[in-house]
């Protein structure tokens, strides 16, 4: 077989909880499976591995699928573009690949929503999920004062990881109101595992109806100015981890022509997208947590591998976790005041040093790019375009190839012969 031209029965993009569950389900049949991820390790954000990380039992069990003889795992591999019918163009550090598939399962996960505020580009300021990822990869924070802020359950998880790494947790600032959190907590009895998790992650540093106003410092972060209720005060700290929820990764799905529903990939009861033989599962179909992602991935894997009858029994389980996801979304809905934190000179695009004032008032994202170079830097708009969508309500344009920066040799491969068995 030409190693630059692969063929498989099922191609799975993403090796987080949804992707691993899809691979496990599909591996029950004698089918060839290719599982790829742009990260060097499996697990996604929730099961991210690293130095000293002890993976949960569910994660260890899920990772066993990588040992399956008919599964090929491609870590550190990115999708560059769709390359014709049932074919994707891929690239990793060693080579470019054309992979032809019979069925495709998109488990592309989600990314953090980072909203601009004065000082958010200072060294020491990261996303909440980003801090957790850095810690799992060995970042030393012992003795440092840390503030975690934003919205959603990820804040407590990030704070717990920081505490375990020896950080001094100054505050966890949740923007949701006491009433919203109380209603959410009162219904957790329906999900005992989540109730127990909340109890384990609880900290006396948790504050509700509180959010960041400004990060303070000269060459790096020195303190953060916050609002809690009607009071404004400053907290000295060395690190601020600030995340305002998650946004589904839909670029590949949109590029291929899948319909979207809101910010997520639209799927039916069998996790099928609007394209035949293309399925989607996990956070890219809507933010819902690892439990929902795993059951969605299993359904997608079963249906894609010709086992739809076995997926029927999982529908009720999926609905159970979808109900939890709906409650999370309602409880942690963002206060519109958070969309007004940026000042005229606050950078929106950090890569190209584009201030908020340079794009505010533009009609859409394309006009903002043409007038300011916003989104044309190293991150290709992953941060600023997502923020702009939240701030201005812009609908992002359909992503064009290449989806990521790629080598010339990779782009040339797309014009070669199509993949064959």
TrEMBL record:
Superkingdom of origin organism: Bacteria
InterPro entries membership: BFD-like_2Fe2S-bd_dom_sf (IPR041854), FAD/NAD-bd_sf (IPR036188), FAD/NAD-binding_dom (IPR023753), Metab_Enz_Cyan_OpOx_G3PDH (IPR051691), Opine_Oxase_asu/HCN_bsu (IPR017224)
Keywords: Oxidoreductase
Transmembrane segments: none
Ranges where the FAD/NAD(P)-binding domain occurs: 9-292
Single GO molecular function: oxidoreductase activity
Keyword Transmembrane helix part of the UniProt annotation: no
Pfam family of the protein (one): Pyr_redox_2
Protein name per its UniProtKB record: FAD/NAD(P)-binding oxidoreductase
Species per Swiss-Prot/TrEMBL record: Pseudomonas chlororaphis
Lineage of the organism: Bacteria, Pseudomonadati, Pseudomonadota, Gammaproteobacteria, Pseudomonadales
């Amino acid at each position: 077989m030409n190693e630059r031209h692969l063929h498989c029965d099922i191609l799975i993009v993403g090796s987080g909880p949804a992707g691993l569950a899809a691979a496990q389900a599909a591996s029950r049949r004698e089918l060839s499976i290719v599982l790829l991820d742009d990260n060097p390790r499996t697990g996604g954000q929730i099961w991210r591995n690293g130095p000293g990380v002890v993976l949960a039992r569910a994660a260890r069990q899920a990772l066993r699928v990588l040992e399956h003889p008919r599964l090929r795992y491609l870590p550190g591999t990115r999708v560059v573009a769709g390359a014709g019918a049932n074919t994707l163009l891929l690239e990793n550090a060693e080579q470019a690949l054309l992979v032809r598939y019979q069925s495709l399962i998109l488990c592309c996960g989600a990314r953090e929503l980072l909203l601009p505020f004065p000082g958010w580009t200072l060294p020491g300021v990261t996303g909440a999920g980003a801090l957790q990822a850095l810690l799992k990869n060995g970042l030393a924070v012992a003795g440092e004062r840390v503030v975690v802020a934003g919205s959603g359950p990820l804040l407590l998880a990030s704070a717990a990881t920081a505490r375990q790494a020896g950080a001094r947790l100054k505050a966890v600032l949740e923007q949701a109101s006491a009433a919203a959190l109380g209603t959410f907590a009162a219904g957790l009895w329906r999900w005992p595992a989540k109730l127990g998790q909340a109890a384990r992650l609880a900290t006396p540093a948790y504050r509700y109806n509180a959010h960041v106003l400004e990060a303070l410092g000269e060459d790096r972060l020195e303190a953060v100015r916050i609002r809690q209720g009607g009071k404004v005060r400053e907290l000295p700290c060395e690190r601020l981890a600030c995340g305002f929820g998650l946004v589904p990764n839909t670029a590949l799905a949109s590029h291929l022509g899948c319909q979207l529903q809101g910010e997520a990939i639209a799927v039916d009861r069998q996790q099928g997208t609007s394209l035949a033989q293309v399925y989607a599962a996990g956070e890219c179909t809507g933010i819902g947590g690892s439990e929902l992602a795993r059951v969605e991935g299993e359904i997608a894997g079963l249906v894609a591998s010709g086992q739809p009858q076995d997926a029927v029994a999982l529908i009720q389980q999926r609905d159970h976790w979808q109900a939890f996801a709906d409650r999370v979304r309602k409880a942690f809905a963002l206060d519109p005041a958070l969309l007004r934190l940026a000042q005229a000179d606050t950078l929106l695009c950090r890569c190209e040093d584009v201030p908020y004032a340079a794009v505010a008032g533009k009609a859409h994202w394309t006009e903002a790019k043409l007038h300011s170079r916003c989104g044309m830097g190293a991150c290709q708009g992953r941060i600023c375009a997502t923020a702009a969508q939240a701030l201005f309500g812009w609908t992002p344009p359909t992503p064009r190839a290449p989806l990521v920066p790629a080598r010339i040799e990779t782009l040339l491969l797309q014009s070669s012969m199509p993949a064959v068995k």
